[in-house]
Specification:
Blueprint lengths: L4 H22 L28 H14 L7 H15 L7 H7 L6 H15 L12 H6 L4 H12 L6 H20 L13 H14 L13 H14 L3 H10 L4 H16 L6 H6 L1 E2 L3 E2 H13 L18 E4 L2 E7 L13 E4 L14 E4 L14 H17 L4 E4 L6 H13 L4 H11 L7 H6 L3 H4 L7
Parallel strand pairs: 4-7, 5-6, 5-7
Antiparallel strand pairs: 1-2, 3-4
Length: about 475
Amino acid sequence: MKFTSAQNDRASGVMLAMACGDALGAGYEFGPPFEGEVLMKGGNGFNWAPGEWTDDTSMAIPILRAAASGLDLRDEGVLDEIVAAWVDWATTAPDVGVQTSGVLRGIEPTASAARASAKRIHDARGRSGGNGSLMRTAPVALAYLKDPAGLAEAARAISDLTHFDEDAGDACVLWCLAIRHAILTGEADVRVGLSALDPDRAALWSDRIDDAETKQPRDFTKNGWVVEALQAAWSAIVNGEGLVDTLERAVRGGRDADTVAAIAGGLVGAQWGLSAIPAAWQRIVHGWPGLRSLDLVRLSTEVLRGKPTEERIDYAGYGDISTLVQHPHDPGVWLGAVGALDNLPPEVDAVVSLCRIGSKQVPARIRERLEIRLIDKVDPAENPNLNFVLADAADAVATLRAEGHTVLLHCVQAQSRTPTVAALYAARHLDIPIDRALSEVSAALPHARPNRAFRAALQSPALTNSRSGRS
């Protein structure tokens, strides 16, 4: 199966949207439902840094890494490695769920030991249906896009490591199959996995899904239970208007807000894609074990492509890639082609890339870096979130400038993407009329000729509306 650009975008959004939901909710965990602004603020009882993810994403990382290495997540040896990583993580993690902590504490770091411990806890308490396996399940979907039956097996096998309860395994199967479906089609539909359950279980879950669609996330007062966590996440998605609104709705539901938002993030990321995730979130999202947003995207890409990410992407065959000029309206913004990364002016300390680059293509001294997914094609299917991406990229440049950074904005040849975003930056933040901005930016770049889809987008008053003073 060869994936389209849009499918790659959606697959790349799964883990990062999950982490963003997690980090967004971290500052509100255990609090009541609320209305109003939702900020990626950190803090709370565990003193999270702004943008830091919690145990939800941390427990997904060993699964993602195993999948990126091409391993079969159903293999007992692979499951042993995942459990060993969890046991090691849990020794220093600031927050480990009550049920998961009970399972992992004091066991041999093997899958069989974890399953035995999970069963003991279930037998002792009479239940073990916490949301701790659903919260981490998203990467399983990436590993089995071509094999839905294998996906269902792997989702349940990994759930069973810490959660003996059948509800937990069912929820992971349903959610992973929904993520797979969203990546492939762009549609969020949690019912697509019902056929993978036994008929009586499918009927039960169908009723639960129906109930979720009549309520809001705040209505699920026991969202630490896997059933209500799934219902709350699905409620946020069916009521949400886009990725950001969905995750904010999930957080406003309160209580186990970070976990519900992380669960919702995996599916809404698969629905809307990486290109719908705000650059402001991407800049600060991070967490155990020392990873950032770009690392999640690269690991996700490695799962899809079945090979490691290149350290450098060779664009030599594309023609002239040496362009490097200052923005005609802001000397603190440099405009360039990808070759400019090898010849950066010393004052440049931030890079915004509008094309695919290798993991080591940006000089190591650059600490502020963003990769914005923007495809230089006119087909709307290639850029399903075009207006959002253009505005977000322009606003990211403005934010970096407001922080005192000198920015390189580049694509492959500074031909279409770079002049478009550079002109929009001037229009939105420097009060330059868009036609003049595009003309003067294009005059400064020797190969500038933005494609007609980008030009058409720039004619939208809502897109080019000045935001000076509000960067």
